[in-house]
Amino acid sequence: MPASVTLSDVAREAGVSLATASRAINGSANRTVRADLRERVLEAAARLRYTPDANAQAMARGRTTSVGLVVHDIADPYFSSIAAGVTRAADREGLQVTLTSTQHDPARESVLVDLLKRQRARAIVIAGGRLDDESINDELRAALADYRAGGGSVALIGQPILGVDAVVVANAQGAADLARALHGRGYRRFAILAGPAHHLTARERSDAFRGALAELGDPVPDDAVVPSAFTHAGGEDAMHHLLRRGDLPELVFAVNDVMALGALAACRESGVRVPDDIALAGFDDISTLRDVVPALTTVRVPLVEVGIAATELALADPSDEPRLTHVPTQVVLRDSTPVR
After folding, report:
1. 141 and 204, same domain (yes or no)
2. Of the candidates 331, 248, 328, 271, which has an alpha carbon nearest to the alpha carbon of residue 296?
3. Are residues 211 and 234 in the same domain?
4. Pick from 248, 258, 265, 249: which is nearest to 228 by CA?
5. Can you give the pTM of this predicted structure?
6. Is this entry keyworded Transcription regulation (predicted)?
């Protein structure tokens, strides 16, 4: 037996052409092989212990065995939990995940989609809220349309505004439920660390939280809504802004947990005690909250399941119309917001 068996050896053993052997083993984007010939080639390959070349298979089929995942920040526990779900779902299908990051530059999403298209990724999952910026959205739509025209498939995690399959988190419902639960615990004076005004997820959560409190008769004043970056540093800066003003609210709601952790750091630096001096709540229930003292009240998003659902959408058979998978949220009340 030769040390290295080639595809030509398999073709000769099976009594077929090299092209037929290649299509039988590697697949083809536009040609098929008769069932009896394919069986003959596979039996010959097994006898010779031939190992197919993964790159050759990808070239023949027009797609690799990879799923591309685009996130905004690899270090953010929100995205790492989604990545865990994507990886789990891809592994079940015998696929690997190629992880890319925009590094908080939304304009890079279209660049990364084009890169994954050139790498012949079988599917792409894009995680992260959309922006109220049609120039960026139009660029991404064009990149996705180009990728899909070549046979790729896409699923989005976030607002379904790009015309592709999407996993939609119940942001507004979760934020409204949180506001009502905290109001029920006796809180009446609130402030919001609202994230960027053009970030649709941040806006959904902030607006729904304010809307629910207005219905309850305790509206949040405009000057108690502090915009910031959608990051730990953004939450820290926004909380310092509130603390410098004085006249502290009873409770601060940060529109994601990473911002809430930044706010907690600002309180520690300023000698403000949570929850004794001020209560604090977030949104997402990221995995790192288990190590936080006091335990943070939040809205749970099943992030691993979100990643799984998005991957399953991206790998499903094509559909004429975009499919939406809706994911519910759950309020989780913890020590950072005790009953007043």
Report:
1. no
2. 331
3. yes
4. 258
5. 0.81
6. yes
